[in-house]
Amino acid sequence: MSEFVPPHPHPRSPVVALLRALLQGEGDLLGLLPAEAYHMPIGPLGYSRRSIVVVNEPRLVRQVLVDADGIFPKSDLMVNALEPLIGDSIFVSSGATWARQRRMMDPALTLMRVNRAFPSMEAGIATAEETLDEAAATGQPFSLDLAMSHLTADIICRSVFSTGLESRVAHEVFDAFTFFERSVAQVEIRRLIMDRAWTRIPQTRAVLDSCALIRRSMGELLDSHLEAGASFDDIASAVVAARDVDGKAFTREELIDQLGVLFLAGHETSASALTWVFFLLASRPEHVRRLRAEVQAVCGDGPITFEHTKRLVFTRNVFRETLRLYPPITFLPRVANEATALGDYRIRRGALVMVAPWLLHRHRRYWQHPNRFDPDRFEREAEMTQGAYIPFGVGPRICAGAAFATVEATLLIARLFRRFDFFVSDPHTVRPAARLTTRPARQVFVTVQSC
């Protein structure tokens, strides 16, 4: 099988990387990464008014993300950027606030057990199959990004709120989040470089309006659970019923914060990864043939069950390798609340401490042929470096939906590629960009044919 190296940036020297990122003006943080960032264990990232330190050594990455002493909370840049969208929710809070929220959210998070959510996945994929049948009949190109966002939003909506997501709402949320991600001030590279630590960056009215639209959509879904006599057995109802040690519930705004995290984390990150999965498989028909052979051998011509997904090893490894190459959360930024050290490296107070799954997953010390698409590498344990693969994070903030996302992707890939062939309209123009998530810089358009 021939080597396949999918699109990736070609890193330059620190000065050239900085100038390129500034001149392009796209807010693509991948452009800031110099060539040496893919080799060093820890060190400075370019030139900036506040110190920016990249941490690539797995042992030190774990120290930052586990953060037993509370030195490295979520960065002020990320908190300020996400506050208009998800408030002081579990994704960005820290300390006692985070601990209270986590205790209250734990019962709801247990409802994300995969066997319980599996029927929602099946229902969402069945609806997507109908849409793809129509697309195959017309032969019209459509946005792969939007299709994956709609599908994963529908699935998480069924899981969290016990209802599918209306197409109009799905489009509005997709458009609003896409605009938010491209425009939010966290990705203004000039400010990242020039501002001091803890400088509050104001958001534009257009960004705030996009946040308001998304929150309004979440509120409409939530209100059915707040009506007198409402009776649901789902994630949203568990969050509504949650109480802290003093017996206090979340307010309506806090509920939108917390459910917004579950909704956006449950569909935007999955949609990002699956967009790349479908692009990669569309580029490698030999992988599609192998995937179909596995599905036929494991499942025959019948339904793909929850038990089957555990045995679809190659299909799951396609997803895992895609997460390595294009981790949905490109960067996990933290801020040093006090002067400290990571190993022998001194960290200044206020420094931006950057753990980057993108770098760790493509680091020259930890991976053979790191830019190559090779799903079988996960079967070669001798090649793996412990702690060098962290698509779902590490430590107490590790993604609670990791198992959900893996089974959802395995089922979705198996079912849709069993029935359809996908063709990218202009594959040579596809390139990754990192803002809040790792997405194609421009939407990927595809056509589909029934097998």
Describe this protein with a few key phrases.
single chain; 451 residues; alpha+beta; Cytochrome p450; four-stranded mixed beta sheet; three-stranded antiparallel beta sheet; 16 helices; globular
Can you identify the CATH class? Answer: Mainly Alpha
Look up the CATH topology.
Answer: Cytochrome p450
CATH level-two architecture: Orthogonal Bundle
Query: What is the percent of helical residues?
Result: 40-55%
Total helices: the number is 16
In order across it, which strands form the biggest sheet? 1-2-7-4
- The count of strands amounts to 11
Name of the CATH superfamily: Cytochrome P450
Following the backbone from N to C, one meets helices and strands in this order, namely HEEHHHHEHHHHHHHHHEEEEHHEEEE
The first-to-last residue Cα distance is 23 Å
Biggest sheet character: 4 strands, mixed
Question: Could you say which structural class the secondary elements and strand pairing correspond to?
Answer: alpha+beta
Q: How many domains?
A: 1
Q: What is the beta-strand fraction?
A: 5-15%
Supply Rg.
21 Å
Low-confidence region ranges: none
**What's the overall average pLDDT, rounded?**
90
The backbone outline, from C-alpha atoms, is globular
